[in-house]
Structures are given as structure tokens and as C-alpha cells.
Amino acid sequence: MARLHLDAQLHALGESVQVPYPLARAAAWWVAAELIRRHPKRLTVVETHPGGGQYDCVSVYRTDTAPSTGLVVFLNVAGHLTHEHWFGSTDSSGEDDRFNWFEVIATPNRRRYVVEQLERVEGLTSPTSTPRTVRGSIGPLLLSHLATTMSIRRDGWDIRNAFHDSAGDWSGVLEWSRSVPGIAFEAMPDDFANEPAYRYWGVLDPDGQAAAIVDVRRGLAWRHDGDGIAIDLLGLYSAQQRRLDRVAQVVLPEIN
Q: What is the arithmetic mean of pLDDT over 48-66?
């Protein structure tokens, strides 16, 4: 079974360091967005709370198989990056075959050290060059940019999935997702677990209300004060000289 090749010194240091939540969240979104940018037709991102609901994961799954067999990696913001094959490892009681957030942030080549290794152990062919940004990748890239911006703020903005998926309590569509004009949860053939709400991610203000919602599969966004007409993120990206900071400024000027 393929294993990660960890930097022993960096990994050991990371096991003794607690990375602040906003920084770990930004790193989790960077990893998720980078994987999806490299495999936009094969991967998607959802929020899950496995382990009886105790874990808080930005989770990357394959789109061409059932959720029960499609996990690529749990990006547990308060813990580790746990790839699917770790669960089948004979030594999965230890932490020597999964990354911690300190090493993700501190490694000098994050793409090679983290992303390419996750691709290798999960059987994803690393592209020879990064594919162009498409509808299936622009949403995660925007959310990654916003998470990075949030990581240096102190006012409690958050990014949450419209579907609360928990192994510990209830699961279902969250009420804040119904407050933004234009959100209809239209079904797509490859929706995760046949639930369209998984595609929708809300950018929540400090009061827990959705300022904007992003459909990560179709590359669309809606603002809370909009008229219900979706923002075409890929078109906006092209119009803004392919600069995510300018896209973020249009979609969510409140935190940019």
C-alpha cells in the first residue's frame, strides 16, 4: 500500500503544535481547491462531521462513485489530513502516515509535498501542467481565497456547507441557506449522495447569516442582497483579468 513520505522533523514538530483554526481552515481550503483545480471533473468538496460528529472536515470526494467508496481526504480543520487509504493501514493507530496542519503550512513546496503525495496514495494521476480554471474549479478557488483573507481577520466570518452532514446528530439543509434570493437547490446527475445542497457553500458573517452562497460545481454565486440572479464566476474571472482578488471584491466586498 502506498504511503506518504513525510519530513520526519517537520512532521514531529507539527504533532506538538496547535495551528489556530482560521489558519488551518485556510490551509484546508487551499488543499481542497488545488486538488479540484487539478481534477475538476473527478473531484468535489463537501463538509462532513465524522467520528460521531466530533470532527470538522472540509472533505474531498470523487464524483464518479458512491460516497461510501469515494473519499479522497478528510481535511479535519482541528486535526489531521486523513486520506482514504490511511483507514486501511495496519498502523492507522499512529500519526505517521497523515499530514498535520503545521507541516502543510511550513513546507517550502506545498504542492509537491502535500498535493502530489495525496494524488499518489489515492491513485490520482498528477497532471503534467495545471489545467485551466473551469466551472468546476472556480468556486473552490474563490472560497480558498476568501478563507485566506478570513485567516487574518478577528471578526468571525466563516465558510460552511448548506448541508449539515454529521455522524453524531441530525443531518439536513441549514436554514441560513434559504435566506439568499435565487437559491433553489437544483439537482444535478452527479450530486453527492443525490443531495444538491452539498454543492452550496455559504460565506457566513459574524452573526452566522449568509452574505453569499457559492455553487462549487456550477461556478455560480448569489449575494444576500441580490435580486436572485446568479453571478457567473467563470465569466467574472475572465472579465477581471483572471484575478481571484478582483472576483472576491465583486462577490463579497464586505471582507476584501
A: 94
